Amino acid sequence: MKNTLRQVFHSPKFVGGFVIFAAILLLMIIYPLINPGDPLEMIGVNTFAKPGTYVSLYDATKAKYEPMRLADAEDKRLDAYLSAEDRVAMVEWFDLAGIDISNLDIEDTDALMDMWNDNYDPAFKVKGMTKAKVNYFRRLDNSIQQLQSADVIVLADTNEETGELEETGQVSKTDYVNVNSVVNVKFLPLGTDNFGRDVFKELVSAIGTSMLIGLLAGSVATLIGLTLGLLAGYVGGVVDDIIMFVTNVFTVIPSFVLLILITYSISQDQRGAAVVGGVIGLTSWTWTTRSVRSQVISLRNRDHVNLSKLSGHSLVRIVLTDILPYIASYVVMAFILQVSSGILAEAQLSMLGLGPKMTEVPTLGLMMNWAMLYSAHTNGSWWAYFPVILTIALISFSLNLMNTGLDQVFNPTLRD
Amino acid sequence: MKGYRKYFGKKIIWFIITFIAAVILNFVLPRLMPSDPVAAITGKLMSGTTDAAAVQQVYERYQEEFGTNKPMYQQFFIFCKNALQGNFGLSFSQYPRPVSDIIGSAIGWTIALQLPAILVGWLLGNILGALAAYVRKGFDKVLLPVFLFLGNIPAFGMAVILLVVFGVYLNIAPTAGGYSFDMIPHLSWDFIKSVISHYQLPFWSIVLISIGGQAVGMRSMSIYELNADYVKYSRFLGIKDRKIVGYVFRNAMLPQVTGLALSIGTMIGGALVAEIIFSYPGLGSTMYSAVTAADYPLISATTLIITIMVLLANFALDIVYGFIDPRVKAAQVD
Question: How far apart are CA A386 and CA A69, in angstroms?
Fold first, then answer.
C-alpha cells in the first residue's frame, strides 16, 4: 500500500492534478472561515457590480483628509474625464483651423491639452461654420478649462430649522483618505451577480455543493456499477446475461435523456442537491459495470481464487478478499471519472432549468444558468460566468489528470 | 458474405430491442414518479383560481386529453400507436401547434450542426493523437495538453467563451439564432450566407472540446500498436516505415470507432445544451423552452427523438465498424 502510494505520487500527471484539486478544496474549506455568512445574501441593490474594492462615499467624506501632492494626479484626472467624444471634437477643431495634426496622437492627453491651450481662440471663425457648431466648441472649451482649474467640492448639510444649506467642509483635489480609516469598505474580488450577491463567496459555496453532488453521483454510480459488475463477472451464467442485457440497453440510451426525464418528473421543491446527485448516479453506472465485469472475468479462474473456492470460502468472502483488491485501482479510477462527469451533468441540467432548487444553495450550474438568464455574456459582465466555466474546467481537468496518472502507474503498457 | 449477414442481423435485432426499451422508458419514467404531471400542469395553469370545481374540471379535461384516466397498459398502446403515426399531441406552450411540427422544424438544424461537428472533431482529434504518438515534439508537448484542457471545458462554457470573444468583443460573428432574424427561410444566396455565418460559432465550440478526448485515446492506442510485435517484425523484414505507419494507424483507429459509439450520447447531450447559448433553432433550444414553459408533450417527444437519433448513430457506427474491421466477419463465421 505504502509502495503503491509512493509510486502514484511519483507520477507527474497525478501530482499535477492532485495539486490543482487540493488547491480548490483548500479554497473551499478556508474561505468560508475568513469570510463567514450566507453566500446567497443580496448585498448589492443594482445588478452586476464590477469586481474591485468598494468604499463608502459617505464615510469617506467623514474620514480624516491627508493633503498630498502627487505629480501625476492632474494628468490622470484629465485622462479619465476627457471623454473620447471631446477628443474627437478637439481634433476636428484643429483640422478646421488648419493646424497641422499629422503628429498628434488622440490618446496623448498631454499633447492634446497643450495644443488646445495654445491654439484655441473663441473669436476664430471658420467659413461656413454654423452658429450652433461655434457655440459647441465654446462649451467644449469651457468644460476643458473647468477640468484644469483648481476648484473644490463643497460639502453641505441642510439646517433643520431654516432648511438652508450650510457648508460643513470642502474637498479639494489634493485631499486623500486612507482606505483603512474609512469605516465601510467592501472588497468584492469578482463583483456581484444579477441578484447583487458576492460572486466570489457564492462561487466558493457553489464549488462545495457541486463537489458534493459529484461525490454523491460518483458514489452511487460506482456502488451500483461495482455490485452489478462483480455479480455479472463472478457469478456468470443467467445472472451475467440479464445484467449485461440491462447494461447494454442503458449504455446506448443516452443518460442525458434519462436524467431529463427523471428530474423533470420530480417537482422543483423536492429537487434538492442530494436528490439531483443521486439521480445522476442512478443514470451513469453502466460504464463502471462493463469495465468491472471484464476485469473480474479475467481474474475468475486465477489459482488463488480457485484455492479459495476449494477451501469452501463463501462467495462474499472470495469477492471481498480475492477479487476486490485486484480491481481496486480500476474502481478508484472509474470513481474519479464519475465524480467529474457528475459535476458536469449537474451543470448541464441546471442550464436546462432542471437543476437543484434555486433558492437554497448555489451550484456551479445554477450560477451559470442565472448569468445566462440575465445575459451577463452579452452585457460584458465576464465575472458572473467566466470564473464558473474556469472552475468547472479546472475541477474536471484535475480529476482527469489524476486519472491519467493512475492509469499510467497501474497500466505499464501505457507508460512512454 | 455469410459472416456479414450474421453480424448485421445481430446488430439489427439488438437495435430493435434497445429501441423498444427506450420507448418503454420514455413512457414509463415520467409516469412512475410519485408526483402527478397532470396535476402539476393543472396547478401551473390554474394558479390563482380559487374555484375548486373549475380546477377539477380542467384536471379531468386534461386527464381525458392525455388519457391518464385509462389503465397503464392501454395508455402505452395508445402512445405507441400515436408515436408511430408521428402524432405526439399538441404543444402547450405553442398551442395549437402540433408537437411533431415543432420537432420537425428543429431536428434538421440539430443534425446539420452536430453530425459534421462531431465527425470533424473526431477526425481532427485522431490526427492530433496520431501525430502526438508518432512525431511527438510540439504535438505531444504543447498541442495535446492545450486541447486536453479545452476538452474539459463544458460544451456550453466553450459556447459562451466563443460567443463573447467573437460575437461581442471582436464583433465578427452573429451571437444568436440559426440565421439572421430579419429573414424567412428560403433558398437564396443571402440566406445561405447568413446560415453559414451563424453556423461557425456553434460548430467550432463542439469541435474544439471534442478534439482533446479523442486525441488522447488515439495517442495511447497508437503507442500501444507502435510497440506491438508485428511492427518490430515488419521493421526486421525491411518494410518501409511509411507502410508500417499506415498499418499501425489503421489498427489504432478501430477502437476509436467503438469509442465514438460509446461517447456519442454524452457528446450530443453536451452539444444540445450549447445550442441554448446561441439560441440555435435546434432540439436543444426546443427542449429548453419546453422545460421553462412546462410543455410536457414537447419534452417527452424531444427526449424520444434524441434517443432515436443516438440509437441510429450507434447503429450506423456498428455497421461501419463491421465493414472496416474484417476480424468482425471472421469472428462471426467461427
Answer: 40
How many CB atoms lie under 10 A from the CB of residue B120?
A: 16
List the single best residue of A253, A341, A349 to mutate versus B (max B Cβ within 10 A): A253
Cis peptide before B96 (omega within 30 of 0): yes
The pTM assigned to this predicted structure is 0.84
Domain spans, chain A: 2-43+194-414, 65-176
Where do we find the cell 453521483?
A: A217
Distance CA A371, CA A364 (A): 11
Asked if A253 lies within 8 A of B310 by C-beta distance, the reply is yes
CA distance A87 to A109: 9
A378-414 burial, b if ≥16 CB within 10 A, otherwise e?
eeebbbbbbbbbebbbbbbbbbbbbbbbbbbbbeeee
| pLDDT (tens place) for every residue of chain B, 334 residues total | 667 788 888 888 888 888 888 888 887 777 666 556 667 667 766 666 667 787 788 778 777 766 666 777 787 888 788 878 878 777 777 767 888 888 888 888 888 888 899 999 999 999 898 888 888 787 888 888 889 889 889 888 999 999 889 888 888 878 777 777 776 777 777 788 888 888 888 999 999 988 988 888 888 888 888 888 888 888 888 888 888 888 888 888 888 888 888 778 888 888 888 888 888 888 888 888 888 877 777 888 888 888 888 888 888 888 888 777 777 666 655 4
CA gap B329, B322 in Å, rounded: 7
Strand partners, A155: A169
Q: Which residues of chain B neighbour A351 with C-beta distances below 8 Å? A: 156, 273, 276
Nearest to B154 among A262, A344, A386 (CB): A344
All residues of chain A having their beta carbon less than 8 Å from the beta carbon of residue B273 are 348, 351-352
Find which of A258, A261, A279, A397 to mutate to test the B interface (most B CBs within 10 Å of its CB): A261
Q: Nearest 5 degrees, angle CA A332-CA A336-CA A342?
A: 135
Which residue among A257, A266, A392 sits closest to B157, beta carbon to beta carbon?
A392
A346: nearest CA partner in chain B: B154
With CB atoms and an 8 Å threshold, state whether B310 touches A254: yes
In this structure, how many other beta carbons lie within 10 angstroms of the beta carbon of residue B22?
A: 23
User: Residue A194 in contact with residue A384, Cβ under 8 Å?
Assistant: yes
Q: Which CATH number fits domain A2-43+194-414: 1.10.3720.10, 2.60.40.10, 3.30.750.210, 2.40.320.10?
A: 1.10.3720.10
**Cell numbers at residue B58, please?**
380542467
B319: nearest Cα among B253, B257, B255: B257
Q: From the CA of A257, how many Å to the nearest CA of chain B?
A: 6
- A-B C-beta contacts closer than 8 Å: 142
Q: Are A340 and A164 in contact (CB under 8 A)?
A: no
Rounded alpha-carbon distances, angstroms, from residue A83 to A75, A90, A143, A147, B334:
14, 11, 11, 12, 82
Cα angle, residue A15 at apex, residues A14 and A21 outer, rounded to 5°: 90
Residues in contact with B207: Cβ distance below 8 Å, sequence separation at least 6, in sequence order: B117, B120, B121, B124
Compute the nearest-CA separation of B39 from chain A (Å).
11
- Extract the C-alpha cell encoding B227: 510497440
CA dist A120 and B136 (Å) reads 65
Closest by Cβ to A348, choosing from B168, B227, B273: B273
Sign, CA dihedral B284-B290-B291-B297, equals negative
